[in-house]
Amino acid sequence: MPQESALPAHHEVPRVELTPAAADLLRRLRETHGPLMFHQSGGCCDGSAPMCYPAGEFRTGGSDVLLAELDVPGVEEPVMFWMSRSQYEVWSHTRLIVDVVAGRGSGFSLEAPEGVRFLIRSRLVDA
Fold it and tell me: What global pTM score does this model have?
């Protein structure tokens, strides 16, 4: 089954954006781990936080939607942002803003040893 993309048309507001702090952290993680990707699941615990992995390490499939190819200044390739289809259905009318806050998130996400975690802030698409 082909993977679905929810990438916006060029005239629309981006579905996913990065704060300057998130972009800075992604540059540092890219230097250490190579190309990166995000996956946002609808699971419990840290499942509501975006998880950062080396690109391709988290296997996406028919139950995932590609929301964005994030251009990060200083990072050669885009950072793909995937979301589980069930989570996308709930958040389909929002713009997601990836930010960084102090504290430990999941041990599976690349930023965990840094003492920070990625966090999603959201706004209605029309806001």
Answer: 0.83
